[in-house]
Amino acid sequence: MTITILIIIIAITVIISMTAFNDRDKMHQMMFIPVRVQESNEKYRFLSHMFIHADFGHLLFNMLSLYFLGSMMLSMEGGIYVEKSGDLIEIQDGWMQKYGYLQGQVLFLTLYIAGGLVATILPYMRNKNNPGYMSLGASGAVSAVIFAAIIWNPTMKLNIMFIPIGIPAYIFGPLYIAYEIYMDKRGNTGVAHDAHLGGAIFGILFVLIINIGAGKRFIEQLF
User: Fold this and answer.
1) Cα(135)–Cα(28) distance, rounded to whole angstroms?
2) Which candidate, 102, 113, 115, 109, places its Cα nearest to that of 76?
3) How many Cα neighbours within 13 Å face the side chain of 28?
4) CA dist list (Å): 130 to 39, 117, 140
5) Architecture of the domain whose range is 5-222
C-alpha cells in the first residue's frame, strides 16, 4: 500500500482519538468550544477538534468514509469512468494522476484541513457566547471530502446504512444537503449539522475552483 497524505491523516487521527478515549482531560482540551475561543483566545481548537472523536463508532464511521472517498479522489491508477450508451468513457483522473503525485496530495490536504476549519465558522458564530456548546470530530472535514468527490465523480454510487442499493452521487448530494438543513432547523439532535453543511459547501467550491469542468459534468448529470 502506497503511503499517501490520506493514510497519514487517518493514522494520526486514529492515534490521537484512541489516546483521548482514555484521557478525558486531553479530549476536553482539544474539543471545539467556541466560548473558550472567544474568551480565552484558544484558536487552536478550530483545528484540534478534528483529531478526536466521541467514541470508536464515531471514529470508525468518519475514517471509513474518508478512506473510501479519499482513495477514489487521489487515485493514480487510471481515471474515473461513467457509462454512456453502453460504453465506459473516461471522464476524470484521480488527483495524483491529473495534478501529479505531490501536487495532488497537497490539494487533498488543503481540502481536508481547510474544509474542517471552514466547517467551524457557523457553529462558532452561533455559539461563541454559549458556554454549553462543545463539539468534536472530523465530520466537517470529511463532509468536504465527500462533496468534493461527489462533484468530481457525480455518477459514482454511494451507499447509506440500512439501504442496500447504491445511490448515484448526483442524487445523494442534494438529498444529503436537504437532510442536513432540515435537521439543523429542527435542532436538539446532538449533531453539528451546521458543521456538516459548512464542510460540504467548501468541498463543492474547492473543486469548482480547481476544475470548473467537474461542476459542469455534475450539472449535466443532475438535469
Assistant:
1) 10
2) 102
3) 4
4) 11, 19, 20
5) Up-down Bundle (1.20)
Tell me: the pLDDT tens digits for 71-117? 988 885 544 545 555 554 445 678 898 888 999 999 999 999 999 99
pTM, rounded to two decimals: 0.90
CA torsion through residues 74, 49, 191, 186, sign: negative
C-alpha cell at 185: 432547523
Domain coordinates of the chain in residue numbers? 5-222
CB 81 within 8 A of CB 89: yes
CB atoms within 10 A of CB 179: 12
DSSP string, 120-187: THHHHHHHTT-TT--B-SSHHHHHHHHHHHHHH-TTSEE--TT--S-EEHHHHHHHHHHHHHHHHHH-
